[in-house]
Amino acid sequence: MPIRIPDALPARDVLVREGVSVMNESSAIRQDIRPLQIALLNLMPNKIRTETQIARLVGATPLQIEFSLVRVSGHTPKNTPADHLISFYQTWEEVRHRKFDGFIITGAPIELLPFEEVAYWDEMEAIFDWTVTNVHSTFNICWGAMAAIWHFHKVPKYALEKKAFGVYRHRNLNPVSPYLAGFSDDFQIPVSRWTEVRKADLEGKRGLELLMDSGETGPCLISEKAGNRLYIFNHIEYDSTSLKEEYERDVSAHVPIAVPHNYFPDDNPLNQPLNRWRSHAHLLFGNWINQVYQTTPFDMDDIGRDRKWL
Question: What is the pTM of this model?
Fold first, then answer.
């Protein structure tokens, strides 16, 4: 089954060219099934690129997905055209009455700020609390993951001496986890962050299971069964050229930045990077959506009804 997104969304043409099955409104109505309701809270400045990256992965599953785009109410993005936001996004205030099978929260380029100094932190805390009762499963990415694990478990983030930037080897710590079905024992994931979560701070935190880590960049993926949440601190959703674009942006702005680790062939920025994480990105998102499908209530009013605050 395909992903259902607005006909005019820029991501549609990209996904069609890549062979992702995309459904139009009239075709979706004819199917006598309940599509999974998946929403993306997009905190990234380049919203069009991020929504395409996530839709690509969500749309590759064999289930019909109705994909909603959400933004925070208390912040006006500078890098996305206003007409795009008006046409395709709703604020969280506009969707807070709804329930969702899955809710994805992205990163944001604010990781060095203390959480309490983020302009929309109060709204983020309200959103995290709302997910307990209105979302069956939440997938938190990069800053979104650090913010969520701080909110729910007070696991702190630490500033790094230099940016963790490149493609790093990771280990599969629990091959029997349903989220890691089909994963290799050893694989590579893009990393782009100035902060980290430390393994020692996870010890004694009830219900948190570390599923992936790297000897160089630390914890990567954590699952939480009771809260039905995933926290991933790295960018498995990135395009082949995402790190290249970040590197060239910083070089052009005269921001000190190292060549991304293990990314360009021969570490030469003139060479075209090779994508070595795409298959595992599809596996992770596919496994997550499969878990959502198997465990979410058929009646969406039942989502969160028996959820306990932990």
Answer: 0.88
